[in-house]
Amino acid sequence: MNDGRNRILRSSVTRAIRLIGDRWSLLIIRDAFQGVRRFQDFLERTGTSRATLTNRLRALTRNGLLKRVRYSDAPERFEYRLTDKGRDLYALALVAWNWEQRWAPRGAGVPLQLVHRDCGRVLRPVLTCGHCDGMLAFRDMYNRPGPGAGVRVPPAAARYRRLSALTAATHRGSQSALTHIADIVGDPWTPLVLAAAFFGLRRFDDIQRELGIATNILSTRLALLVKRGIFDRRLYSSQPDRYEYRLTDKGRSLYEYAVVLNAWGDRWLASASGPPYLTVHRVCGADVEPILRCGHCGEQLVPGSVVSSATWREQKRARA
Length: 320
Ligand SMILES: [Zn+2]
Ligand SMILES: [Zn+2]
Fold this sequence. Notes:
Layout: H1 12-20, H2 23-33, H3 39-46, H4 50-62, E1 66-72, E2 77-82, H5 84-87, H6 90-103, E3 114-116, E4 125-129, E5 141-145, H7 179-185, H8 190-198, H9 204-211, H10 215-227, E6 231-237, E7 242-247, H11 249-252, H12 255-269, E8 277-281, E9 290-294, E10 306-308, H13 309-319
Antiparallel strand pairs: 1-2, 3-10, 4-9, 5-8, 6-7
Helix pairs in contact: 1-12, 2-7, 6-12
The site of one zinc ion (ZN) has 8 residues, from loops.
């Protein structure tokens, strides 16, 4: 599978991961969608340190996902609000939430239950094709080079990341939703290893060549992903022993996250020449523009259309 060497490093997924591919940024975005704006509130809910939070808020602001707005003059105080680019991550946050509802281990904290305001049903998001409206199933999609395929992206900024960031205690903050998925995708290399799997690579050497990742880093990531039930490891040759890594059902169902992240990257981060890779929906033959809809009423899920079940009950009582 050497036809498109380093396709993944040139894809929008890689660019997007550069911006939001660490667990704290994901959790900050999660909280921003729930209306959190102030430093202290982010601090309590995410459970990160002041220094890390300062650093991530600064990066998210610099990269245009949050904007810093002054809300008090003396003393001077700022709050952080999602920009359009940040709000456009809404589908990603819901896909992450949905995956976590399904796969987070017991005891990882009960994720919030959400309700779709338009129909009043418990949220069941469905990823659909913007062209034919059909469901986007993993087996019905494939990738092809796009207009920006030749454009080089500098090597991933993942070098400085230590393993401790990967195995950090998960639920330090007051909010536990999305912490399981943040543990899996919240590291700059792991989503790339997953992307390699979605591109059909299974063997250690193939993944290593494709990503240009150090073998020890790759071994650690693969071992963690096996431990977390994302890959099954199978021996395919002996003397020396060689293994391949196959996505489990749990792993395969992360494709929605990858598709939505890639589409966001295409919209906001692609070079002037266009998206580097296009995903094709086999069913209709169109390039995939994923749209997240309510599985009950079919409406598109946009910011504000989903509330926690507690909020929904309160509002219902207030209306009665
Ligand atoms: Zn389609
Ligand atoms: Zn609905």
